[in-house]
Design brief:
Blueprint lengths: L1 H13 L9 E9 L1 H4 L4 H15 L6 E4 L5 E6 L5 E6 L1 E4 L5 E5 L3 E10 L2 E6 L5 E7 L2
Antiparallel strand pairs: 1-2, 1-9, 2-3, 3-4, 5-6, 6-7, 7-8, 8-9
């Protein structure tokens, strides 16, 4: 039921993509998992913090490429220095541009907390709760 609701939202969101500021390439500069970490016991927190530490080395090399046709590519570095591209099926921005939905094998809803011309801050209440900070790359 949740997926059906989010798909309906995506169809509604798609109508306003021609005017949105998100289209283009964005560099991921920060991921904040503090809200999620607060819900974990100490053993889970230690394990999760190790994973986060490994991923923070890739932050400045991870890009989100939002395309006008609702396609989204997430480009992450591989150990050999090349980029790995993950294709997200669809994305959409709400009419008032305060919510962003991404649909792939799972559906994720992000709230657009703050957006400047070259900065985008997205938060998700989906598990794991997190905040993504992106800077316009092109």
């Amino acid at each position: 039921m949740k997926s059906l609701f989010l798909i309906a939202l995506l169809l509604l969101f798609g109508a306003c993509q021609s005017e949105n500021y998100i289209i283009g390439k964005w560099r991921l500069v920060e991921i904040d998992f503090s809200d999620h970490l607060a819900t974990l016991d100490s053993e889970e927190r230690s394990f999760f913090e190790e994973i986060i530490e490994k991923q923070t080395t890739m932050l400045d090399q991870t890009f989100f490429n939002f395309e006008a046709d609702s396609a989204l590519q997430v480009i992450t570095p591989k150990k050999d220095g090349t980029g790995q591209i993950m294709q997200i099926e669809k994305w959409g921005l709400s009419k008032n541009q305060d919510s962003l939905v991404m649909i792939n094998t799972e559906t994720e809803l992000f709230f657009v907390n703050r957006s400047e011309k070259n900065k985008l801050i997205l938060t998700s209440n989906d598990r794991p709760k997190r905040k993504l900070v992106l800077i316009k790359a092109d």
